[in-house]
Each structure stands twice: as C-alpha cells, then as structure tokens.
Amino acid sequence: KTARKPLIAGNWKLHNNHFEAIALVQKLAFALNDGDFDAVEVVVLPPFTSLRSVQTLVDGDKLKIGYGAQDVSQHEKGAYTGEISGAMLAKLGCSYVLAGHSERRQYHNEDDAVVNAKVRAAFARDITPILCLGEGLEVRKAGEQVAHTLAQLDGALKDVTEEQARRLVVAYEPVWAIGTGEVATPADAQEVCAALRARLGELYSPETAQETRILYGGSVKSDNIAGIMAQGDVDGALVGGASLKAEEFVKLVRFGE
Ligand code: PEP
Fold first, then answer.
1. Helix 246-253 and helix 18-32, axial crossing angle in degrees, nearest 10
2. What is the pLDDT of residue 124?
3. In angstroms, how far is CA 235 from the centroid of its own chain?
4. DSSP sequence for 46-98
5. Is the pTM of this model over 0.90?
6. Mean pLDDT over residues 101-121, rounded?
7. Which range of residues forms the domain containing residue 18?
8. What local confidence, expressed as pLDDT, does residue 36 receive?
9. 180: left (phi over 0), alpha (psi -120 to 50) or beta
C-alpha cells in the first residue's frame, strides 16, 4: 500500500458555475499550500463549463491540485449533440475523468458496454479513468456485493491493456451509500476493494494489481475518512457532498486531522 499514493477526488456533480469554481479552488489551494499536502494527491472534478477556469487557475499558479471531468463521450467526434470528447478534455489538461458513476448508470442508462467504451476513450487520450463500480441495496441485502462489483469490473475492462490498467483508478461506490449519509463500514469497503484488487491480479498480473489505486466512495466525510484510509486495500476516496465546502474538503484530505 505504501507504494500507492493516496488519491482524494472531489466529484462536484451539478454544482458550481465557473465563478464559484474559481472561488472554491482558490480556497483549497490556499488551505493546502502550506507544504505538507504532498502526501495525498488532490483532484477536483467540476462540471464541464468550469474546466477552463480551473485549468487557468491551476496552470497560472502552478497549483498542486489535479482536475478532470465527470463524464466523457464514448465517441471521438461526429453528430452526437451535447457530447464532450476525450480529445476536448485532454486539450483542457484534464488528468482524470469519471466513468460509470452510478448516477450516469441510473439516469442515463449507461451499461457495462458503454462504460467500457468510455474507459477506452479516456485511455486513448492519456486521461486516467476513475472507474466507478458498486452494488445497489437489493444486491447488498442478498450478500452478492462482491460478485456484482467484480462483474462490473470485468465488463468495464474489456480490451483494456495491462499497460493501461496500470494507470487505472477504480472507485468502489456502493449505490446505497452515495449521498445518503449511509457510509459503508471500513470492513465493508475493505472486503470489496480487496476482491477488486485480487480480480485485477487475475485479469492482468499481481504487479499491476498492486499498482492500481482503488478508492472508496459513499458519504465520506472528514469524520469517517480515517477509518476508511486505514484499510489495506483502500487507497483514497471519491467524495461528493463533502467536496463542495473548502474547509470540510481540506479536513478530509488531511484525513480528519
Ligand atoms: C459520489 O458522488 O461519488 C459520492 C460518493 O457522493 P457522496 O460523497 O455525496 O455520497
């Protein structure tokens, strides 16, 4: 685990216009810029319309904050009204993009084949996909969370090469814990994250599995992050609600201290 740098990514969802985005990133940078936040990679995922503003800030002031988008088109170009391509995100300097967030799966009917196409579209432009996986409440109640989440992993990684998989970030996000205040226990998170790592070892190699960062997401806050980070196979967090307030997010990035 020590070789994997912790990653905390803030998924802003449908919040913050470009003006508000600038204010939030400035606050984050100010609070984090006292030298010791090198231990954790901090990433923000604003709406598309705020990316240019975030890029300008991060580049202009050489901020140690990474950024990316919340979605990418599976298509490269063409008659796809409303879509944003991987090339467009790369041009804006995005390092990361979410793929398969449960809200995209639920409200935009993204299935494993679409998620796979998006993962490959990101890799094609050297953008690291943060591949989101996780079970709903019914599956959890049936005790099928591991099988369900591994099947999603298999589907999303079809035709993804080992070289690409080494750069992949996986986010285990049980749907019942997203935005509900219902956080999985650290042991719940560890169970599925360990199973995901073992499967990466089978799909690719144990070395690759050891390099891949696996995050937990679902109602992570500054007061529960420490227990989650203490788990051997959890390398960080994907954070929604708690990433919208600078003070709370900074506390979270410092693992609650
Ligand atoms: C998310 O959007 O990925 C998420 C985990 O949201 P929240 O932290 O609000 O549960």
1. 40
2. 97
3. 11
4. --HHHHHHHHHHHHHTT-S-EEEES---SSSSSS-TT---HHHHHHTT--EEE
5. yes
6. 97
7. 7-253
8. 60
9. alpha
Is the minimum distance from the CB of 173 to ligand 1 under 6 angstroms?
Answer: yes
Specify the ligand 1 atom closest to the Cα of 219: 10
Any catalytic annotation for residue 101? Answer: yes
Q: What is the Å distance from ligand 1's center to 246 Cα?
A: 16
User: Residue 230 domain-assigned?
Assistant: yes
* Angstrom distance (rounded) from CA 152 to CA 132: 9
For residue 145, the tally of other CB atoms under 10 A from its CB is: 22
Residue whose structure tokens are 């975030």: 54
- Residue 2 placed within a domain: no
Catalytic residue among 41, 101, 103, 110: 101
CATH of the domain at 212: 3.20.20.70
Whether 96 is in a domain gets the answer yes
CB burial of residue 2 (10 Å; 0-12, 13-18, 19+):
exposed
User: Is 144 a known active-site residue?
Assistant: no
The answer to whether the CB of 240 is under 6 A from ligand 1 is yes
pLDDT tier at 33, thresholds 50, 70, 90: confident
In a domain, 1, yes or no: no
Atom of ligand 1 nearest to the CA of 243: 8
What whole-number distance in Å separates Cα of residue 54 and Cα of residue 247? Answer: 18
Per the structure, the count of domains in the chain is: 1
